[in-house]
Amino acid sequence: MQASTPQQRLAPHHELPRDAATVAAYRTPVRFARDPLAELEAISGRAAGAVVRLNLGFLRPYLITRPDDVQHVLSGHADRYVREGMMWQPVRRLTGNGISGDGPQWKASREVLRPMFAARHVAALTDLLAVTVNEAVDALDEHAKTGRPFDVAEAMTRVADLALGRAFFGGGIAAADGDRLGQAVATAFTSLTARILLPFAPRWLPLPGDRAFRRAVRTVDEVMYPLVAQRRRQPDADDVVALLCQTRDGDGQPLDDRRIRDDVVGMYVAGTETTAMALTWLWVALDANPAVAERLRAEVEDVVGDERPGAAHLPRLRYTRMVVQEVLRLYPSGWFLPRTALASDVVGGVRIPAGSTVVMSPYLTHRMPSLWERPDVFDPERFGPERTGRHRFAYLPFAGGPHQCLGSQLFMVEAQLVVAAMLSRFRPRLRDDGPVHPRAAVTLRPSRRLAMTITRRER
Ligand code: HEM
After folding, report:
1. How far apart are CA 219 and CA 250, in angstroms?
2. How far, in Å, from the CA of 397 to the mean position of ligand 1?
3. Mind listing the UniProt keywords for this protein, alphabetically (predicted)?
4. What's the whole-number average pLDDT of the chain?
5. Does any ligand 1 atom lie closer than 6 A to the CB of residue 40?
6. Domain assignment of residue 6, yes or no
7. Which CATH number does the domain housing residue 398 bear?
8. Residues spanned by the domain of 282
9. Among the atoms of ligand 1, which is closest to the Cα of residue 443?
């Protein structure tokens, strides 16, 4: 028998599972509370891809960043990990247990919803999206006339709300109800922060934000249920609510009102804030990278010129697509993905006991120096056609595995249209109000308000 070499003895697959090194993040509570992202980035940098356990005092999640390990949890062994605990429990009080849940109810919802996001359907939706985006960007013209700055995040939220609103509700929702729904969902989300940060607080213990949350959920119901009733009376309408009203479940039964309400709200929650924040970061990235902005402007000029951007322009807006992909690398709206382990497991050589919380973070994986050359540099060329061979889970703004985002194609189309509509009409500039960095909320938000001024493009 041949003796093993030291390298063979050290090879990870020969090692016995070990306990994770624990990082006492609670020892630096002030730093952690002030800027959890920066702390997590520092911890992830020191761990260099190893699975570590964060001791946050009240919660001790395992942090998983290496693509192989992320793939293990999200895809290869996804059946061992569920969306329970941490942020999921509170979110579900808004969205119910369908598409944003897990288990059989989630599966049934996913099967019903997936065909609605197939390429064929997205292509059919593109014209509607183009009209919506063009209208929303037209509305900014007043700022070009007056020179008055506007809040970028608010403007992008409006575009995202309108776009998904039209796709989901067609003309079936009055503008005022659309605004009420958008605001209620946003309020419900922000008022959940305390519940998300204190996942073990019992339901009976009042926390800040609880009342606002309950009010917001009531508003969501007041808008949604009448809408479902209306669509049941108009079965030929062509939008997502109408399609759901016509759908039968696996047993051939129509979907009940509650299920339609839950899945539409679940998709709305998943798709609006994420889109709005990604579009907001886009302008931050362009402002900080004038050479990229100039090349983008030239592409839009060349492809769109004086026309109104639409489906026909999209295939040629190649650099635009690369820029959007790079925005999602540095600023992935869905920056953390928590799961609960159903059974004990071994990930990256580390023992994960049953019941543990594990957290994957596209934000951290996208910034690992072992995966990305000069990870802090904004460089759309990373997504050029010749760049292949990357690990599937090195880049995961839309996650992966069975819960992979349903709206990724819709988002890419919308983002290309927004860039093209903005740059074919305006020259945008952010007001210089000092540095801005990502702040961790349910999505990745800018650390301060961002004021934009626009002037009309000279023809
Ligand atoms: C920049 C835009 C977006 C980002 C970064 C994003 C990101 C994500 C991520 C990371 C997940 C996986 C969550 C998990 O694994 O627990 C997800 C799921 C989901 N996303 Fe998106 N998303 C975006 C836009 C959209 C849009 C426009 C829609 C439209 C409806 C949408 C609908 C969904 C749905 C329904 C799920 C749940 C899928 C499931 O669990 O089966 N997303 N998204």
Report:
1. 31
2. 9
3. Heme, Iron, Metal-binding, Monooxygenase, Oxidoreductase
4. 89
5. no
6. no
7. 1.10.630.10
8. 14-456
9. 5
